[in-house]
Design a protein that fits this description.
The protein is an alpha+beta fold. It folds into two domains: 39 residues, no CATH class; 107 residues, no CATH class. The protein has four helices and eleven strands, in the order αββαββαβββββαββ. Strand 1 and strand 2 form a beta hairpin.
Amino acid sequence: MGKLADALNQAVSNDVITPNFEVYNARERERELEEKKARHSGPVKEKIDLSLFECFNITTCHMYRTRHGLWITVSKNGEVRISHEIGKHYEVGATVELLLNRAGTILVMRESRNGFALKASESDNKKSLSKRFNCKDISTALEKKGIQLPVRFVVNWDDDLKAWVGRLK
């Protein structure tokens, strides 16, 4: 007999005969796939380095975009916006300066006599204490560093520097 005849003699209902005339038991193949799926979807048993994972929590997700977040944004036209939570520490007219690291990934904002005067942010929410000022030079500097605008820096107060220090998000 030929290969096809041998394969047909061995095969039973629901078996698959391949182009090479090999017989695969469909039920057996399905069981193997289920076992494989179970092996790959079970609990993780390897040692994991969490520093390689992206973290999602209230400081990395919605909080830095809300009124209660601590953030500073820079737009393409150089408008710098300071969140409500930071703005409540400054009166309108207070002056601040910005410092940017060479890579453009860390921003520092501190009070300075030679700084930009803070204005009230234009908002529909009259209770908002967010502030703003314009500084075209910072948007130009960020673009020269290859950073696409607009950008947001998530900041925290640094007691040693007496300044808001933030990392590019």
